[in-house]
Write a structure and sequence with these properties.
The complex is a heterodimer of chains A (384) and B (646).
Chain A (H helix, E strand, L loop, with lengths): L8 H4 L2 H7 L2 H21 L8 H20 L2 H28 L7 E2 L4 E2 L1 H19 L2 H5 L5 H16 L3 H17 L4 H21 L3 H11 L10 H13 L10 H4 L11 H34 L3 H25 L17 H19 L14
Antiparallel strand pairs in A: 1-2
Chain B lengths: L7 H39 L1 H12 E6 L6 E2 L5 E13 L7 H8 L7 H12 L7 E4 L4 H10 L6 E10 L7 H4 L2 E2 L24 E2 L2 H5 L1 H5 L3 E7 L5 E4 L13 E3 L3 H11 L4 E7 L5 E7 L5 H5 L3 H9 L21 H10 L8 E3 L2 E4 L1 E4 L5 E3 L1 H7 L2 H11 L1 H10 L21 H7 L11 H5 L9 H13 L9 E4 L2 E2 L13 H14 L10 E4 L2 E2 L1 E7 L23 E8 L6 E7 L5 H19 L1 H8 L26
Parallel strand pairs in B: 2-10
Antiparallel strand pairs in B: 1-8, 2-3, 3-4, 3-5, 6-7, 8-9, 10-17, 11-12, 11-23, 13-16, 14-15, 17-18, 19-20, 21-22, 22-23
Classes of the chains: A mainly alpha (384), B alpha+beta (646).
């Protein structure tokens, strides 16, 4: 049952029709990635579903259902909830900041009693929604360069600074880059972009030298030359590269990766799970998984192309950017091309928070796809 | 902004910008993925070998297997140094290992007080990572198995069975064989044989003295390695027996010593200080080389406590000192054999007599032990008349005596394989010129004391044994041999050397006089060994170790304070008609040679002769007077011409 721009309006709202509009090939690819994650988690636990593989697969199942449900929601609900979700995320970030002051050091979690929530994860979706919502309402002329742009700048920088203060540089960077990507996609003037890039080139080295914490600076310096301190800060990178390189073309075989099985590889079930995969399945396995990721990214981006509403376009693209950044940053880190920042490989790594963020994001993306012909009228008249 | 964006153109404009820019985004994502793929190809396809090596060195550790140290055996195969099993507990440190907690746990199995734990922690800290440190050794089987079972839970801990050096005869061979001890920092060298990693192994012991030191490399062998797979915390995950490298055991070193004689020497010395050296005077093999009092070399293997070491080092009888090689003493009257030979070789008539009235005046009064009356050379050797030799020496001069002494090996260092020999001194005019810048002239007044083996003359017991064995042999300038074979390879024999360029008749004359010594002379009755016709010939010596107020001879210190007493010498060979064994015995501050040294030499000689199958055959079956082949009867009455050795 396919729909088109000419399908009767009421017809498109039927759940069965909507279900048919979901990109099931995309869902299959997601499941393959998550399945590969389960496979690796099973291997590094010494052929055991506990402690990682079973929760990982169960979570994926749960969030898969959540994703489908979110995909079936009317896009106008997303549209209407954009600012509220952003606001809640911001409030929680402030709350974490305050509670964090009372307790100790880096506090990223907010213990709500029932669940432990990481507000920065809400913000990853929140920033996409808020920016998409904002740009939906302004003209392309205003999006190029105008005083209006102070609003998206604030929307981005306030949460980025709050997260960076936690301190969680990886997430802050992710939010910042996602936000900037949306601003650029929405049509920011090239001159401003060029000026921004120029400013960044000047500012980043200064920031590294004067703003960063010592350990953060150390990570960056170590990344430049991991062999300089193979048992200290360079240990993670060296061991990860050893795992990758020793995998070769075909890998050492499932369950036979000495680097991960013998614990030489740190964080093997989370941030460095890709290295485990590389060690046991070799270049061929890695390329297969990278191809799946590429397919997921391009299919998600395709949704942004076909969406009729500007909100839908930007939301789908924003979600895709976040996901792609996860993959690229983690991949670069595991392969020794980027400093060690706590960014996991989405769907492959063990960990519920990131999986939740990604699956909710894809729920939004699929929702855009299902509702790609709707124009989403702006303002209060929409739904609420 | 509240205005809905409904104008078609506006919608189109926004969409157009987005689409154009999304293509750029897409390109970025694509490039990023390609970069990842390229990087993967570089790491996994091009640099595989490098990372495979690194991975393997992470994964596998080679644990050194120390080789069993070579045995030291005597001429008959009796084991003098071997190894016994030793259950040890080893701990190594590494990152992520809590050594302190590990030691706490281990103290439940083996007794370890807090002070010991603190000491071990310091030692562990000063040891390179992953090099094990020994926490306990000689554990009982129960302790060993208890720890062995828990080994998988205790990171960095291993319990193993190693071998520890053991010297079954305790002190008897301590000076010859030496001992092994812990490796010092100075022992480890960047190059050469001691660059070996095995030196870092906690159970490894390095040879410190004697044979253990001189043949350390031969005895050491080659370490093997056990291939084990380890995890990141150093836990042994599994073993890989196919990857093991077997150790090569050290070579067995066979000495020429005879354990029975050596042990007898230790017995007869008791707490006396001194040395006994015995040689086979046909081959040059050293059968006995004992220095007393000795020490238990086994204590050194474990490491001595400061108290133990001081006890040994400060004892006035110097047990750590090899008196057979390292100490030199005036040879006393044993040296008269050399003076006599020098005289005979220089044409002095042995019938020439001197009169001994108990003393002789030459510049001062030179005393003699007794009033010997008229003495020819034969009787002067037998009675050890100083007056005769004062004058004989004076007539010859020092250089002729010294030349003869050197022919018999005195003042020489012999290559016997182990270190620590002192050459001593056979003085002559050249020596005087060299050593006394302010008084370089040899004065005639210095010759008489040289004639009786005093003065500058200082020799070690090995040299005197070589001297007497050459006198006994009569033809060859024997060289002593201590190392019989290394790893089954025979070492050069001591008698493959030049002829002794001394008239055999003159040697026979001196041997006959030495036979007289043990029959009617200074050591009368010692020559009768109680072995029938087998007799021993010898020469006593009583050497002044201390100058008693310028008194010279006659003021023997056989009593009084130990360290002021004379040294007692006895050199001997037997059987005197067909010499096979020669020995030199020194009893430091023992008093008279005849009473302190000669009986000890007799004991050793008896044992050597009884162990010799040919001599034993002679003792038990003397040549029957008739041809009937009647059962042998003991016939001590068989006449032996003592003056003419065959």
């Amino acid at each position: 049952m396919t729909v088109s721009a000419l399908t009767r309006p009421g017809e498109r709202d039927r759940p069965v029709v909507k279900l048919g509009e979901i990109d099931w090939v995309f869902c299959l690819f997601l499941s393959l990635i998550a399945g590969a994650g389960g496979l690796m988690l099973f291997s590094i636990a010494g052929s055991s579903f506990t402690p990682w593989a079973a929760p990982h697969l169960a979570r994926f199942g749960l969030f898969f259902v959540v994703m489908i449900v979110l995909a079936l929601v009317d896009l106008r609900v997303w549209f209407a909830m954009a600012y509220p979700i952003y606001a809640v995320g911001l409030l929680l970030l402030v709350a974490v900041d305050l509670v964090g002051d009372i307790s100790m050091g880096a506090q990223r979690w907010l213990d709500l009693g029932v669940v432990r929530l990481q507000p920065s994860e809400i913000m990853k979706v929140g920033i996409v929604l808020a920016l998409a919502r904002f740009y939906h309402g302004i003209s392309s002329e205003a999006a190029r360069f105008s005083w209006w742009l102070a609003i998206p700048a604030a929307l981005i920088l306030v949460p980025v600074m709050l997260v960076a203060k936690q301190p969680d540089l990886g997430t802050a960077m992710l939010i910042l880059l996602t936000g900037v990507a949306i601003v650029v996609l929405a049509g920011l003037s090239w001159k401003v972009i060029a000026a921004g890039i120029g400013g960044a080139i000047v500012a980043i080295p200064l920031a590294v030298m004067f703003v960063l914490h010592d350990y953060q600076r150390q990570r960056i310096l170590t990344f430049m030359n991991p062999e300089s301190d193979p048992s200290g800060s360079g240990y993670h990178i060296m061991q990860s590269m050893i795992a990758l390189g020793s995998g070769g073309l075909f890998g050492k075989g499932y369950g036979l990766g000495s680097q991960s099985q013998l614990n030489f590889l740190p964080e093997k079930q989370t941030d460095f799970i890709f290295a485990t995969l590389a060690e046991e399945f070799g270049f061929l396995g890695c390329v297969a998984v990278l191809a799946l990721y590429a397919a997921v990214i391009f299919m998600a981006l395709r949704t942004a192309y076909v969406a009729h509403s500007h909100f839908g376009r930007l939301a789908a693209a924003g979600v895709t950017v976040t996901f792609a950044l996860y993959v690229l940053i983690n991949g670069a880190m595991v392969m020794g091309m980027a400093p060690v920042v706590g960014v996991p490989m989405p769907l492959l790594s063990y960990g519920g928070t990131v999986m939740m963020t990604v699956m909710i994001g894809f729920g939004l993306m699929l929702c855009v796809r299902v509702n790609r012909y709707s124009e989403v009228t702006s303002g209060k008249g929409a739904l609420l | 902004m509240s205005q809905p964006a409904i104008f078609f153109q506006e919608v189109n404009e926004k969409q157009g910008v987005f689409h154009r820019r999304a293509i750029i985004l897409q390109a970025f994502a694509g490039l990023g993925m390609l970069a990842l793929g390229g990087r993967l190809a570089k790491l996994q396809l091009m640099d595989t070998a490098k990372y495979e090596t690194l991975s393997a060195s992470n994964q596998y550790n080679f644990k050194l297997i120390p080789p069993p140290r070579g045995l030291v055996i005597d001429r008959n195969g009796v084991v003098l140094a071997s190894n016994r099993p030793n259950f040890r507990l080893l701990v190594m440190h590494d990152k992520d290992l809590d050594t302190n907690a590990t030691l706490k746990v281990l103290s439940q199995f083996v007794p370890m007080d807090d002070a010991r734990q603190t000491k071990l922690l310091t030692e562990l800290k000063n040891t390179p990572r992953r090099v094990p440190v020994m926490v306990a050794e000689d554990m009982t089987w129960d302790q060993f198995s208890a720890i062995n079972i828990r080994e998988p839970e205790l990171a960095g801990v291993s319990a193993d069975m190693s071998e520890v050096r053991v010297y079954p005869h305790g002190g008897a061979f301590a000076h010859v064989i030496g001992y092994v001890a812990r490796v010092n920092a100075q022992d480890i060298q960047p190059t050469g044989p001691n660059a070996d990693a095995i030196l870092l192994h906690p159970g490894f012991r390095i040879g410190r003295q004697g044979v253990e030191k001189a043949f350390d490399i031969d005895l050491r062998g080659k370490p093997g390695a056990k291939k084990v797979e380890v995890d990141a915390r150093g836990h042994e995950v599994r073993q890989d027996p196919l990857g093991d490298i077997q150790p090569t055991p050290g070579k067995t070193i066979q000495l020429t010593l005879d354990a029975d004689i050596q042990l007898r020497a230790m017995e007869v010395f008791g707490e006396e200080s001194g040395a006994a050296v015995m040689m086979d005077c046909r081959s040059g093999d050293i059968l006995c080389m004992f220095s007393g009092p000795s020490f238990d070399a086994n204590r050194f293997v474990r490491g001595l406590t400061g108290v133990e070491y001081r006890g040994l080092a400060e004892y006035e009888r110097k047990p750590l000192f090899n008196k057979a090689l390292t100490a030199t003493y005036p040879p006393g009257s044993t040296f008269k054999t050399m003076v006599a030979l020098a005289a005979l070789e220089n044409g002095v008539d042995p019938k020439k007599t001197y009169h001994c009235g108990g003393s002789w005046t030459f510049g001062r009064v030179w005393k003699c032990d007794a009033v010997h009356g008229t003495q020819d050379m034969h009787s002067a050797i037998s009675t050890s008349c100083d007056v005769f030799f004062y004058q004989t020496a004076l007539a010859l001069g020092p250089d002729k005596i010294a030349a003869m002494a050197r022919k018999f090996g005195l003042g020489q260092i012999f290559d016997i394989g182990i270190p620590g020999q002192k050459a001593g001194l056979v003085p002559d005019t050249a020596y005087k010129r060299r050593a006394f810048k302010r008084d370089p002239v040899w004065h005639p007044g210095e010759t008489p004391s040289m004639g009786i083996g005093q003065g500058y003359t200082h020799l070690n017991p090995l040299q005197l044994c070589v001297m007497v064995s050459r006198i006994a042999n009569g033809r060859k300038a024997l060289h002593p041999r201590l190392i019989r074979s290394i790893g089954g390879v025979e070492q050069p024999r001591g008698n493959a050397f030049e002829d002794l360029t001394v008239d055999p008749d003159h040697l026979a004359y001196v041997r006959a006089a030495m036979a007289e010594v043990t029959t009617t002379g200074t050591a009368a009755r010692v020559g009768d060994l109680g072995l029938g016709e087998i007799k021993m010939a010898g020469k006593t010596g009583t050497a002044q170790s201390y100058t008693y107020g310028g008194g010279g001879r006659g003021a023997h210190g056989a009593r009084g304070e130990w360290r002021l007493r004379d040294h007692a010498w006895f050199v001997a060979f037997a059987p005197y008609d067909a010499p096979r064994y020669a020995c030199a015995v020194l009893v430091e501050h023992g008093g008279f040679g005849a009473s302190a040294a000669a009986p000890r030499a007799r004991e050793l000689m008896r044992l050597a002769l009884l162990k010799d199958p040919e001599v034993r055959a002679r003792i038990e079956q003397p040549p029957p007077p008739n041809e009937s082949g009647a059962p042998a009867t003991s016939s001590p009455g068989v006449a032996v011409n003592a003056g003419k050795p065959t």
